[in-house]
Amino acid sequence: MKWVMERDLLIAQTMAFVQSVTGKKPEADTQVAPPSSPVIEFEQFESPVEVAATPRKPPVARSAIREEIEGRVAAFRAHQQRFDRERDKHFNSVLTGIRAAITDPSRASTR
Length: 111
Prior knowledge:
This protein is mainly α. The chain folds into 2 domains: 1-55, no CATH class; 57-111. The chain is 65% helix and 0% strand. The chain has 3 helices and no strands. It has helices spanning 2-22, 48-53, 59-103. The longest helix has 45 residues, at 59-103. The radius of gyration is 34 Å and the shape is elongated. The mean pLDDT is 78.
């Protein structure tokens, strides 16, 4: 039953964190009483403001990569469509030859 205590502790910590961020008071029916085990203080973690303030890579490189990927996908799609058209053309020509051979055996081509 240790996992139940850990779950209750996690819920209590989460509720405390949410309340500290939003400034709201807990509702009586949704608050979970923390168990009698040690509670981890939130001060040891980075605050969301510090995490959000960290510099990030500029989106320019990402958009260039994205454009290259989109170009490759478009080329692949066009290539596949060309294969589909060629396959359909070949299928129709073979099917036409088979139908002609069935209806008029003298028109059958020998390969």
